[in-house]
Amino acid sequence: MAQDNPNDSPVAATAAAAAAAAKPKKLLEKKKNLPERISYPFWFGGSASSLAACVTHPLDLVKVRLQLRSGDAPKNMSGTFMHIVRSQGPRGLYNGLTASLLRQMTYSTVRFGVYEELKNRFTPEGSAKPSLPLLIGLSTFSGFLGGISGNAADVTNVRMQQDAALPPAQRRGYKNGLDGMFRMLREEGVKSWFRGVWPNSTRAALMNASQLATYDTFKAVLIMYTPLGDNITTHFASSLLAGFMATTICSPVDVIKSRVMSTSHKQGIAHLLREIYAKEGVTWMFKGWVPAFLRLGPQTICTFLFLEAHRKVYRKFRGLEN
Questions:
Q1: Which of 76, 178, 300, 316 has the greatest number of C-beta atoms within 10 Å?
Q2: What is the C-alpha end-to-end distance of the chain, expressed in Å?
Q3: 224 in Cβ contact with 230 (< 8 Å)
């Protein structure tokens, strides 16, 4: 006589069905809800980026020097760093800081502020997470606007960073960012404020799309699908990944932008591309990538950590912390 299989009993079948139903439920419970959307002040992005610039400016200076190097100038990051310290002292690492801060107050305030405002307006009601294509589109547009608004300060910034590396007769000697901008206006006309505006705005659009959109996406994924919550570990990991993406995507445009802005004479983009390709081959596209990442990685991390700190204080002040 065949023995009944315990697994065939109604009780066992009911228990198995209950376990099977509970399993997907348990998996779904691991997905955490995203924090509720809050409208933050427009200037938060510019303030956070300015604080980050104070930390990472020496790396930005080294990156520009490498992109614009000529003659027997050092060919690597450490050599350029030591050359600046030996020839100008530690303060030389902060050449052009005032112009860098002026750039962040214009460029970053616009790119962050417009992005956050548009994100709040275009995100569907009842949805805390906008789609990735929407984030890319909004961040590209806001980055382009930021690039235009911050172009004059960006030209000044590049020139001040490069000034000490030029022969004494060719140095411009700008006292600070505002002095540089108004001297450019007097000596070269208003067009000097828009030198390289198209490659710069294109770079800004790429930067915003590869930095802000990827940060928001990585942050949402980490919050929803990992044990991490909306905390500093998530912010650090998301910003590091965003910095890597932004450096790689923006490197070719960044090289072109630096070379166009460093000159005082008019030079077409097509002519410049032919010239640097003939001299350096395709490697020009990633010239200075390592120092660019070593600058942009920490700069992205610092910017978003400072930005999240701004937001946390704002929520606490407004009683929205929980």
A1: 300
A2: 65
A3: no
Q: Pick left, alpha or beta for residue 70 (phi over 0 → left; psi -120 to 50 → alpha; otherwise beta).
A: beta
Q: Which single residue is written with the structure tokens 């590869």?
A: 210
The span from the CA of 226 to the CA of 205, in Å, is: 30
| Per-position DSSP letters for 292-311, written without gaps between them | HHHHHHHHHHHHHHHHHHHH
Distances (CA, A) of 214 to 70, 217, 223, 303, 316: 35, 5, 14, 14, 26
Tens-digit pLDDT profile for residues 159-206: 888 787 778 888 888 888 889 899 999 999 999 999 889 888 988 998
Q: What is the pLDDT of residues 274-321, one digit of tens each?
A: 777 777 777 777 777 887 788 788 989 999 999 999 999 999 998 886
CB atoms within 10 A of CB 90: 9
- Tokens standing for residue 218: 């990585």
* Cα 221-117-142 angle, rounded to 5 deg: 85
Do residues 34 and 129 make contact, with C-beta atoms less than 8 angstroms apart? yes
Sign of CA dihedral 217, 220, 223, 228: positive
Residue type, 157: N
pTM of the model as a whole = 0.74
